[in-house]
Amino acid sequence: MDPEAFDVLVRLVDWLSIRFLGDMAGLSSSEHRPSPTLERYERIRVLIDELVPMATPQVVHHLLDVFTHFVSVAPIAVLMQMGQLLHSSRQLTYHHDHLITDQVVKLVRLYLADHGPVLRSTEAAMPVLIDILDILVEEGHVEGILLGLELGELYR
Q: Is 37 helix (H, G, I), strand (E, B) or coil?
């Protein structure tokens, strides 16, 4: 495929993904964002699963916004998807993007502050959190080390 045509196709997929996902999640309007609901999250969960392995940096940013919006109604499901997204991003080297790592730090802080009991009671959560923190530490993000210490306190 012609490189220019491929670039146009990637931009189109990005735009359609973000637009469609934003509409379904209720995030496309900056004036009124509806409260997150488990029902709305379940409707977009399959789309997120399809986007994760092929997400471009722009879609990664948008998915992290979606995760932030829905973490209060589906914390473990969102955490698992975030772990998959960051694993894919790492393979595609998007994890070097400082905006992405900043969004991840905010999300992990939110988890540690608001969802400690759920994290402790869900066996699958700890390995995902450790993997996320590993990515931050590998990037030299000091916050990754500090969050790792907080995670240790949570599981004591």
A: coil
Cα dist from 104 to 33, 65, 133, 139, whole Å: 21, 10, 9, 12
Residue 2 has a pLDDT of 80
The type of residue at 128 is V
Q: What dihedral angle (degrees, nearest 10) is formed by the CA atoms of 13, 18, 21, 24?
A: -120
pLDDT tens digits, residue range 35-67? Answer: 888 998 998 899 899 888 887 888 888 899 999
How much is the pTM? Answer: 0.83
Are the C-beta atoms of residues 63 and 86 closer than 8 Å to each other?
no
Provide the b/e sequence for 97-128 (b: ≥16 CB within 10 Å).
eeebbebbbebbeebbeebeeebeeeeebeeb
pLDDT in tens, 72-103: 999 999 999 999 998 887 766 655 667 788 88
Tell which residue, 152, 89, 90, 146, has the closest CA to residue 119: 152
3-state secondary structure at position 140: coil
Environment class of 44 (CB within 10 Å of its CB; exposed 0-12, middle 13-18, buried 19+): buried
Q: What 8-state DSSP symbol labels residue 155?
A: T
